[in-house]
Amino acid sequence: MLGKLIKWDLMADWKKYSVLYAATLIVSVMLVATGKIKEKIINNRMLEIIEVMFGTLFMTLIVSIVIVVVGFTVTRFYKNVMRDEGYLTHTLPVPTWQILVSKLIVSYIWFLSAAIVGAVCLGIAMGEPLWLFDAIGDFEEFMSEIPSSQEKSTVVFLTATIIISVVLSPFFLMSHAYFCFALGNLSSSHKLGLAVLAFFGLNIAENILATAVMGFLTPDSVDVVWTDETIPPVQVYEMVNKTTLTILILSVLISVGLFIAAERIFTKKLNLE
Predict the structure, then answer these.
(1) Is there a contact between 177 and 74 (Cβ–Cβ < 8 Å)?
(2) CB 191 within 8 A of CB 82
(3) Most buried in the list 23, 50, 254, 269, measured by CB within 10 Å?
(4) What DSSP line would sit under 115-182, residue for residue?
(5) What is the pLDDT of residues 8-33, one digit of tens each?
(6) Mean pLDDT over all residues of the chain?
(7) What is the pLDDT of residues 81-107, one digit of tens each?
(8) How far apart are CA 117 and CA 95, in angstroms?
């Protein structure tokens, strides 16, 4: 049944995303084509204006991809789970956790597709379709120039932590959204407004918690920064690694907790009035 839930969500939204992805791809090709023509026809004011227009439109579309994916995934969850469609959704012969997991998997599919389309279109626009592979090669070259094995290990660890954080970022976002919607669900009116307030309040509380935790775990690092002491590169990397790892672990624990809490609220305290 989980597969059917995922299929239904994908079928419901794929046309919306396809239009945006196709438009971004077409504009990136037109931008490159305009640049090639401008190389042949020098000092043409009209071509320069067209190139600027395509460039502006392209950057707008690239930013819009992220906004649209977030907006569509969050909006679809709200409509399917908390609005009129919720009556049908919650009468399906599936446990609540499968509904939430299916929404999360679908959001990952759209985030991944957006990342791929964005990367391809950026490569086309820059005239370097294989720029990602070039970036990997540049990183390997950078690593080969680091003399110390300890520095290499700290850089690799930092890079891995950042990659994991990026991969998990949709889960972080959606678990927060699910929990805030679950809190809004408890109200008989102004559910969306309460969910939005809960989202901002939750982020403020998390920032305070993260600051407190980091201050507790790295007091020596803070003292070094404030005294303007010269810090060896390895120590700097270790400070950054400790910070990023702590934030990652904290984010995972909070997000898992919020996801479970949302599932419990929707299961035990569902309110579609």
Answers:
(1) yes
(2) yes
(3) 254
(4) HHHHHHHHHHHHT-TTHHHHHHHHHHHHHHT---HHHHHHHHHHHHHHHHHHHHHHHHHHHHHHHHHH
(5) 888 888 888 888 899 989 988 888 88
(6) 82
(7) 887 777 777 777 888 888 899 999 999
(8) 34
Task: Quote the tokens at residue 68.
Answer: 């649209």
Phi then psi for residue 90, to 5 deg, are -80, -5
Burial pattern 67-106, b for ≥16 Cβ within 10 A else e, equals ebbbebbbebbbebbbeeebeebbeeebebbebbbbbbeb
Q: What angle do CA 80, 84, 89 make, to 5 degrees?
A: 45
The pLDDT assigned to 222 comes to: 46
Q: How many CA atoms lie within 13 A of 125 on its CB side?
A: 22
Alpha-helix runs per DSSP H in 41-95: 45-81, 85-89
Hey, what amino acid is at 66? V
Alpha-carbon distance 102 to 87, whole Å?
Answer: 17
